[in-house]
C-alpha cells in the first residue's frame, strides 16, 4: 500500500466531485459519506473502537464500490476495493481474539456449553501476543491507512458522478443476483461457501441503504432482515474459526473434557445456524433478479414517491 508523501498537499489533489458541476447522485453521496466515516474512525482515540469503526467503514465502501460502472471507473473502483480488503485483513488480529470470545459466549447462551468449559477453552486457545492486538489499534499501519482513506475521500465521489439511475439500478440487480446465486447453490456443511455468501449478504445490506430513503418503511424492514441474515452467517463464521483453532490444538489429559464439549457444541450450533440462515436467505431472495430490478426501478421513479 503506497504511503502518502509529506509534500502532497490537499490543494494539489483532484477536486472532489462535489466541487464540480457533476452531481454526485445517491451512490456518490454514499461513497463520500462512507469515506468520511473512515476518516472519523482513524481519528478516534479509543483503539478498539477505532479498529471496529474503520473495518465497518471499509466494508461499506467495498460494497458500494462494487456498484460503480464504466470501464475505466469500474477498474479503478475494483483496484481500490482490493486495497481496502487488504487493509482490513491487516487489522483482523484485533478482531480474532474478540470473535473467539463471542463464539464461546454464543455456545454458552445457545448450545448449553458450561461456562467453565468456555473459560478453559478461551485461556488455552489464546496466543500470548493476541492480548496486545486490541490495544495497538491502527497504530502499526497508521501511515498506510491515512493514505488509503485520503485516496477514498478524493477518488470515490468521482467514480459515481456520471452514473445514470438506470446504471445504478442495473448494478444493484447484478449484486442481488450474485447474493441469490451463492445462497441457492451453497452446501450447508461448506463453511467456506457460507463465508462467501456472508460477504455477498454484507454487500447487499449496505447497497440496500441506497434504496431505503425511497421507501423508508419497507426499506428499513428489508435492511433489518438482511442484517439478521448477516448476523447468523457471522456467528457461523466465528464458530468455523473456533473449530479450526480446536482442530489445530493438541489437548493433554486435563484438556479433554472442555475440548470435547466445545467441539460438540460448536458443530451442533453451526448446523442449526447454517440451516436457519439458508431458510431466511430463501425468503429474502425469493424474487428473480429481473423482477427485483423492475421493483427497484419503480422506487427510483419520482412518480412513485409519496406526495
From TrEMBL:
Pfam families per the UniProt record, alphabetical: CHAD
Alphabetized InterPro entries for the sequence: CHAD_dom, CHAD_dom_sf
Domain CHAD: 16-290
Top-level taxon of the source organism: Bacteria
Stated name of the protein: CHAD domain-containing protein
The species this protein was found in: Ancylobacter mangrovi
